[in-house]
């Protein structure tokens, strides 16, 4: 039985890295976190499929405004790919659509197939992704029996390592680590690896171990959070994700009221501004010699 909703003063502003269990959607986790934290001001970044487990970034209170600015552009996963079976969803939750013996796939061909899917590649997302097609989610169209065709898009797979190869009868299971850009579908890597080898493939396990600067060693399960709720303070979360700028007391007062600061040579993306007391004040973007606040977190 779940515990009653947390009561008392509002929770502190910050991020929670949740170790998401299998079977829950990211939205389900947000619902649980609202009850645990005792606030409606909860959001998430970097969605995980229900089958997947691992690091899910949750924002609480003012940190929900931080989520849209986080550059969670690189993610790392531990996964198991099964060669010899294709499924309608490219993972173990879908119906098997084709089978072939993968027991004779040479390691050399396997390595070549993985090399072809490493680096800057064009990837066709899984048909059961949340990508919208004419205003409707692709997965919803597939569930209604439509044959959806999605366009290939550029992604980067910077790491695709095989740690173990296991024979399961005529099937071949690969334990892998993948580090990739945001928007990469690990299910599609499994599908395309199997297709390239002529035997088909799908994903049977997926666990995210890092999303941007936030790693699984910082994560806590929902049960642990039920017992003892705590956040990564918003100042620490911002310092981990953005370049830092420390300002004087006068500059702190200016930026707290939405004023612009003189440029500091930090163009190229959001910069976290901290006051002389170490408090996180705002995110600014620098252009043409001025740093303009894009989100203020004090006052």
From TrEMBL:
Domain tRNA pseudouridine synthase II TruB subfamily 2 C-terminal: 242-297
Pfam family membership, one: TruB_C_2
Catalytic reaction(s) noted: uridine(55) in tRNA = pseudouridine(55) in tRNA
Keywords, ordered alphabetically: Isomerase, tRNA processing
Root EC class: isomerase
Location of the Pseudouridine synthase II N-terminal domain: 34-186
Catalytic center residues: 49 (nucleophile)
Keyword hit for Isomerase: yes
Domain tRNA pseudouridylate synthase B C-terminal residues, every copy: 187-230
InterPro entries: PsdUridine_synth_cat_dom_sf, PsdUridine_synth_N, PUA-like_sf, PUA_sf, tRNA_psdUridine_synth_fam2_C, tRNA_psdUridine_synth_TruB, TruB_C
EC number: 5.4.99.25
Job of this protein: Responsible for synthesis of pseudouridine from uracil-55 in the psi GC loop of transfer RNAs.
Alphabetized PANTHER family for the sequence: PSEUDOURIDYLATE SYNTHASE TRUB1 (PTHR13767:SF2), TRNA-PSEUDOURIDINE SYNTHASE (PTHR13767)
UniProt protein name: tRNA pseudouridine synthase B
Species of the source: Yinghuangia aomiensis
Gene label: truB
């Amino acid at each position: 039985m779940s515990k009653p909703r947390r009561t008392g003063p509002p929770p502190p502003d910050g991020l929670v890295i949740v170790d998401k269990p299998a079977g829950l959607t990211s939205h389900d986790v947000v619902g649980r976190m609202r009850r645990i934290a005792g606030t409606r001001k909860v959001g998430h970044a970097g969605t995980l499929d229900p089958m997947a487990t691992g690091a899910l970034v949750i924002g609480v209170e003012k940190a929900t405004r931080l989520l849209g600015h986080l550059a969670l552009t690189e993610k790392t996963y531990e996964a198991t790919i099964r060669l010899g079976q294709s499924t309608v969803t490219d993972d173990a939750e879908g119906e098997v659509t084709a089978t072939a013996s993968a027991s004779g796939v040479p390691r050399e061909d396997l390595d070549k197939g993985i090399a072809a899917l490493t680096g800057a590649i064009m990837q066709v997302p899984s048909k059961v992704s949340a990508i919208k097609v004419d205003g409707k989610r692709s997965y919803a169209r597939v569930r209604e029996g439509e044959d959806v065709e999605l366009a290939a898009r550029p992604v980067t797979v910077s790491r695709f390592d095989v740690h173990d190869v296991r024979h399961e009868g005529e099937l071949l299971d690969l334990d892998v680590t993948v580090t990739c850009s945001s928007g990469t579908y690990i299910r599609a890597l499994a599908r395309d690896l199997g297709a390239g080898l002529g035997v088909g493939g799908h994903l049977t396990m997926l666990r995210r171990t890092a999303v941007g600067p936030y790693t699984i060693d910082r994560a806590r399960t929902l049960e642990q959070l039920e017992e003892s709720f705590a956040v990564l303070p918003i100042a620490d979360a911002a310092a981990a994700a953005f370049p830092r700028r420390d300002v004087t007391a006068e500059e702190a007062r200016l930026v707290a009221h939405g004023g612009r600061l003189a440029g500091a040579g930090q163009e190229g993306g959001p910069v976290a501004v901290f006051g002389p007391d170490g408090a996180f004040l705002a995110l600014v973007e620098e252009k043409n010699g001025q740093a303009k606040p894009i989100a203020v977190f004090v006052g």
